[in-house]
Design a protein that fits this description.
alpha+beta, globular, two-stranded antiparallel sheet, 3-stranded antiparallel beta sheet, about 200 residues
């Protein structure tokens, strides 16, 4: 008799997947101060996040919708709780590793799923800065977006290489670049080779 399938996720992940918090149910009536969308719905992997920010620069509400996997849902659910009450500047610096830690860990091959919410949040904050006339606060002005679907920049690819990504698949795991339409594959591989040569040869 086959053994029952064992979940490899923590109880926190299971809870946030089964009972996701702050899901946006009425997008038409929600009056956000910033909204970010990453991914490509045609390929079934997309995240939208919307934030409200008060006059002090504090995030007072965070809503989201996604077409993603269980890890992406749980990651974004707990992220939406974590950012409430935070300064926009502090929320901007939350990383996928921070999100995974809040969940009590994710399987190594699922860490990349937490990237969707992270990127959608930063896109929402960028949108907030644009609406408020503060484009100088956007940290990506000098970076080039390589993967349009997942909003991955050349700087993020370089950082992933520095953190140990040596193959295209390893780079995809860390950044999600090329995981949707794949049109950026050649450019991503070219940068992988360039940064590997720059930092390790």
């Amino acid at each position: 008799m086959d053994k029952p399938v064992e979940w490899v996720y923590t109880d926190i992940v299971k809870d946030h997947f089964a009972n996701p918090r702050n899901v946006l149910s009425d997008e038409a009536s929600y009056k956000e101060d910033g909204k970010g969308i990453v991914g490509n719905i045609k390929c079934g992997d997309q995240m939208m996040m919307a934030i409200k920010v008060d006059k002090r620069g504090i995030i007072t509400d965070c809503k989201w919708k996604t077409f993603g996997c269980a890890s992406a849902i749980a990651s974004t659910s707990i992220l939406s709780e974590k950012v409430k009450g935070m300064k926009v500047e502090d929320a901007y610096n939350i990383s996928p590793k921070d999100i995974a830690a809040e969940l009590g860990g994710l399987p190594e091959h699922k860490i990349h799923c937490s990237v969707l919410g992270d990127k959608a949040l930063r896109a929402a904050i960028d949108d907030y800065y644009k609406r408020k006339g503060m484009p100088n606060k956007i940290k990506r002005n000098n970076e080039q977006i390589i993967c349009q679907c997942m909003n991955v920049t050349d700087k993020e690819i370089e950082n992933a290489v520095k953190e140990g990504a040596r193959t295209y698949s390893a780079l995809q795991e860390k950044t999600k670049s090329g995981t949707v339409c794949g049109k950026c594959k050649d450019r991503v591989i070219s940068l992988l080779e360039e940064y590997s040569g720059r930092h390790y040869k």
